[in-house]
Amino acid sequence: MVRIGNIVIPESELVERFVRSAGPGGQNVNKVSTAVELRFDIAQSPSLPEPVRARLLARRDRRITADGVLVINAQTLRTQDRNREDARERLAAFIGQSLHAPKKRIPTRPTRGSKERRLAGKRERGTIKQGRSRTDWD
Question: Domain of 28?
Answer without folding.
Answer: 2-96
